[in-house]
Amino acid sequence: MALPKSRSNPIIMKLDSPEFKSLFSEELKCLISIFKEYGYEIRMAGGAVRDLLMGKIPKDVDFATVATPDQMKEMFTTENIRMINMKGEKHGTITPRVNDKENFEITTLRIDVLTDGRHAEVQFTMDWMLDAFRRDLTINSMFLGIDGTVFDYYFGYEDIKSNRVAFVGDATTRIREDYLRILRYFRFYGRIAKAPNNHEELTLKSIEENVQGLGSISGERIWMELKKILEGNFAGEIMLTIIECGLSPYIGLPDKPNIDELKVVWKRSGHLKMNAITLLSSLLCTVEDVAKLHIRLKLSAFERDLAYFIIDNRNPKPNNDPLLPYKKLLLKSKTKQSDTREWIIELLKYNDFPHLEEFKAWKIPRFPISGIMLKEKGIENGRFMGIVINELKAYWVDSNCVATEKELLDQLPKVLELLSEKRNNK
């Protein structure tokens, strides 16, 4: 196994920042003392180190250790510390729950001895540099000692300072170990880079030559990464690069995505915090495109229906009262009103609608007719009453919600006559 250029001395600094100090809960101090007592070194690893070096408090902190899973299990059992989620054990991860309050994911140093582009067979090691070598990007390959010592074997710190996103060693090799790393590269590009199109040519070449590998990755894993890309920095430009690299057929997009619409929407609305699906919908032309996307990515029902809603309603709705068409959309909706309201807000973002805040502030008026009122007029409970209410509500909405209870009840004979005619014409 040929290793890339590395530091002869990986220790680059001692970290003593407020962000680093803030991580030391009583539970973490307890964990550290246990590892120290048993003589096993433990370090913070990966993304947490990257975030701390960027002056951020990490959301999650993963740990690496020389202790094997069996040694950790024996140690935690002896110390009467409960372990949870044992699924990660075959990959070397043990999760103790300290003081029944805080969980810590701790993984034995390892190397990947056999990979198929999705999964890896691992072998445990005592070599910190080998563990760093198996990681995806240089910025994610660093370790941080409990005393603040930063260990950087593959120049990740320099890449952070220069806003560079690079694979550890050979990009093609790293990608073929796990094809999802293609999307991870783009996600971290959005987080680290300072310009939208400063990708290295060789990196993009490696991605282009290996895109077919994404076909073997589950839709759920692809969507997890793609969603973060779409909600991150340079989302529009990165999606264009993703399409240029040939990813479209493997991530649920049409063979010829609507890139002109994406460019328009991103230029017009990129400053707004759009839902990932809202921006992604710009690349879709038809409801059939939405259905295919959903089959590939396994979207949630809300996300799927939002995409359908954007496709169906994104064309302009000119009106003297610009909000009225959207109020009607909400009031006439047969789906959950809170969901429809969110979809309309996303639609207004998509179009950079100037009255977005006004719509958000609009309080839905109370429909003045109840089932009791209709029952008093001789309408029986059940499905037919629901149809009558919907007809009256449509009239009320068309009046801009100003028709009174009396005016609506005065419409009841006409509504009943209309429904009777419809029934007779069937």
Overall description:
Helix content is 48%, strand content 10%. The protein has 426 residues and is α+β, with helices and mostly antiparallel strands. The strands form 2 sheets. Strands 1, 2, 3, 4, 5, 6, 7, 10 and 11 form a 9-stranded mixed beta sheet that branches. α8 (181-192) runs parallel beside α10 and α16 (324-331) packs antiparallel against α17. The termini are far apart. The relative contact order is 0.06. The mean pLDDT is 94.
Uncertain regions spanning at least 5 consecutive residues: none
Strands, total number: 11
For the residues shown, what is the average pLDDT?
Answer: 94
Number of helices: 22
Classify the secondary structure makeup into a structural class: alpha+beta
Radius of gyration: 28 Å
Task: Calculate the terminal CA-CA distance, rounded to whole Å.
Answer: 76 Å
Sum up the overall morphology in one term.
elongated
Major sheet attributes:
9 strands, mixed
The multimeric state of the shown protein is single chain
* Helix-residue proportion: 40-55%
Q: What proportion of the residues form beta strands (DSSP E)?
A: 5-15%
Summarize the structure.
This protein has helices spanning 18-21, 26-38, 47-53, 69-78, 128-133, 156-161, 171-177, 181-192, 201-208, 219-230, 235-244, 259-269, 276-281, 287-297, 301-313, 324-331, 337-350, 356-361, 371-376, 383-398, 405-410, 412-425; strands at residues 11-14, 42-45, 62-65, 82-84, 93-98, 102-103, 105-108, 110-115, 120-124, 143-145, 149-151. The chain is an alpha+beta fold. The longest helix is centred in the C-terminal third of the chain and has 16 residues, at 383-398.
